[in-house]
């Protein structure tokens, strides 16, 4: 009796986790398709920079954007783009340790 309840609890937990993962992937894919069709060129470049970078910090994104578009972007504008991408569920923030210093990065 106790073993069967344990098996059912494990099965339910596995099913719930798999369902949550599938729904999140579908939402991200759907949002990405909408984003790709409606985003500005700068937003698309920011997303591409984040995808291609292993440690996409604010500074690396600004410098890569300057190389790609040939002019500097205002930090406020980049902050807004990153917030939108995060709200859409396309990128997420993370804090990593670089030389014993916490560093904020964005990743897909």
Short description:
With 108 residues, this protein is α+β, with helices and mostly antiparallel strands.
Structure description:
The protein is α+β, with helices and mostly antiparallel strands and 108 residues long. The chain has 2 domains: 1-38; 40-108, Winged helix-like DNA-binding domain superfamily/Winged helix DNA-binding domain (Arc Repressor Mutant, subunit A). It has 4 helices and 2 strands. It has helices at residues 2-38, 41-52, 58-69, 75-87, and strands spanning 92-98, 101-107. The protein has a two-stranded antiparallel sheet with strand order 1-2. A hairpin with a 2-residue loop joins strand 1 (92-98) and strand 2 (101-107). Helix 2 (41-52) crosses helix 3. The radius of gyration is 19 Å and the shape is elongated. The chain starts with a helix and ends with a strand. The model has no long low-confidence stretch (mean pLDDT 89).
């Amino acid at each position: 009796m106790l073993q069967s309840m344990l098996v059912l609890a494990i099965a339910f937990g596995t099913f719930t986790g798999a369902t949550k993962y599938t729904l999140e992937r579908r939402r991200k894919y759907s949002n990405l398709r909408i984003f790709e069709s409606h985003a500005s060129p700068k937003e698309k470049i920011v997303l591409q920079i984040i995808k291609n970078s292993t440690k996409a910090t604010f500074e690396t994104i600004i410098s890569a954007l300057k190389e790609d578009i040939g002019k500097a972007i205002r930090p406020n504008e980049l902050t807004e783009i990153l917030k939108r991408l995060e709200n859409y569920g396309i990128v997420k923030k993370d804090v990593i340790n670089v030389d014993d210093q916490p560093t904020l990065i964005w990743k897909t």
